[in-house]
Amino acid sequence: MDGSDFPLLVVVLRRQLTLALLESSPGELIRLNDTKYKCSSSGDVNGFYDWILNDNECIVGLRFALFSDDSDVLYGYVAMLNAEYIVLGEVKPQFTVCFSDNRNIDSFGSIGGEFGGNYLALSYKGERLITFGTGAITNVQLESLRHINAHWIG
Known about the structure:
- By secondary structure, this protein is mostly beta strands.
- It contains two helices and twelve strands.
- A hairpin with a 4-residue loop joins strand 10 (120-123) and strand 11 (128-133).
- It starts with 7 loop residues before the first strand and ends with a strand.
């Protein structure tokens, strides 16, 4: 599945949870405010991810397993970031991005095995981001993403 038909959720890898929504696939560059990020991979599939849902079917996080050439570098970057919203997986290179303070995510359901719309990008300052295609989630869930307590760009 290509993520170009659906908005992309952008997770900017900073100490504070920082998100954006892109309405289409970025091509080679992603611009968020005044910062340009160059996509570091040629395709839009760099791993697979699960949207993590709570009992009310609201999205509370993403579980991401990398399998791109950049996976060790990105996993190391995420580990060094030491951000509270990121939980490193028991299996490398896997991690979870939590959208709420509840870190007990294993009891929640998920929309699993999603591919596509998944770009890795790097800014000239060395900051990294990851995008996730939203094609597997409902319009209500997509709208609920906009209400996540995070620093939003754009």
